[in-house]
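Sequence only, no structure available. Ideas?
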Amino acid sequence: MRLAVTGAGAVGRSVVELAGEYGHEVVAVADSSSAVVADAGLDPEALVTRKAEAGVVGDGDPGDALAADYDVLVEATPTTLGDAEPGFSHVRTALERDRHAVLANKGPVAERYADLRALARDGDGDVRFEATVGGAIPAISTVEDVEPGHVTAVRGVLNGTANFILTRMAAEGLDYDHVLAEAQDLGVAEADPSFDVDGTDAALKCVILANVLSFGAADDPADAREFTLDDADVEGIRDVPGSALRLAAEDGRTVRLIGEATGGTVRVAPRLVPENGTLAVSGTQNIVQIETSHAGRLNISGLGAGGPETASAVLSDVGRLG
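Reply:
I predicted one. Tokens follow.
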């Protein structure tokens, strides 16, 4: 497959670097202010070096990448809420050209899912978005394999930053503010950690899963309920005291930020879980539990973030389109 990549952050750069190992070539890349197009395929090392040294990927306009001759657009710009721009427009351009689109950007899938599906139905391109939920964890493809109509709920630990903080609080008996500062020093938490610690990131992932369940189970897309972030009941971890974790440990339990999606609800909140239970993954690990009608409970765990990890999910989706 010939790939065009919008977004040159950690995920976009990793897609460029790893595409060849998966049998694909990158012919165009755009960042927020520039683009480079090469019909014969780009040199990944040269592109990554230029981005690092000059701050841009090329001399062209970002729109040049969208107009290039590619089979699949990889949308890896930062997640935005509300109208999900510019990611949504990037994907729309690809689908209107009868190209495929693979997203690492959660915004269009969480905020404008019905619009994406309608665009795909109207053309010859398809939309895939494994990388939007759980990084390297194949959560969405597993739900699809089981079939959404046979999945009653999906839950799990879906944010590595929040999980790192809660793990350290429990292990060291420390309070939230102390561990947050440590996580920021280590680069695990952003300078503004709100997206992670307030539960927004986990909620977006659960919204995406709820849409997959709702639309996947509906005989007619018009009958499916569309979810957005506004439909999620969200509580973060800022107010979890260290004492709560200490008390939980005395009872053989711990606290994790758990997200849950069904065909009708989306919830994210700190919850007590067994200390040695499946949901008590540690550090930046993620886990997804899929409750099924006939196959019981399926558990999938792994790295939920990171450039190469998320790029592996993107490139797996590209392979499914082939």
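The first strand starts at residue 2 and ends at 6.
Hope that gets you unstuck.
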